Amino acid sequence: ARWLYREAELPPVDVRTTAEAVIVEAGLPGLKAEDVEVSIDGDMLTITGSFKKEEEKEEPGYYMRELQRGAFKRVLTLPVPVKTEGAEAHFKDGLLTLTLPKAVGAQPHRIAVTGA
Q1: In a 3-state reduction of DSSP, which class is residue 111?
Q2: Which of 23, 39, 49, 111 is surrounded by the most beta carbons within 10 Å?
């Protein structure tokens, strides 16, 4: 009967790194910026929010119910240390994009190689 109704599932995310930052994108269709909260604690990123939950009714005729409903909490371990200062969060068309600057020690450094 799980295919008849599912609680809100974890939103899909993409995580990538650049030389300067960690970029996280989360698909949150149907939500608004005010429905989403983001926090960082150490190397843990937490994205929480709530999809509008309709009153649960026993309605005949449903074959599938896949639209997300209810609260969700997605916790990710970041691949490198980040700085919270300068972090940015943008929400547009159901896509949350986080730009998290890498901590100084986490940024790549080039080391010159010399011959002996």
Answers
A1: coil
A2: 49
Instruction: Spell out the residues 6+ positions from residue 24 whose beta carbon is closer than 8 angstroms to its own.
Output: 13, 14, 15, 45, 76, 96, 97, 98, 100
Question: What is residue 64's DSSP assignment?
Answer: -
Q: Identify the CA nearest to 14 among candidates 98, 114, 107.
A: 98
pTM of the model: 0.76
Rounded to an integer, what distance in angstroms lies between the CA atom of residue 74 and that of residue 14?
A: 12
Q: For strands 13-17 and 95-101, give the pairing.
A: unpaired
Give Cβ neighbours of residue 103 (< 8 Å, ≥ 6 apart): 80, 81, 82, 83
Sheet with strand 36-41: strands edge to edge:
36-41, 44-51, 70-77
The answer to whether the beta carbons of residues 22 and 79 sit under 8 Å apart is yes
**What is the amino acid identity at position 23?**
I
Residues 1-33 pLDDT 10s: 444 444 446 889 999 999 999 999 999 988 999
Distance CA(49)–CA(10), nearest Å, equals 10
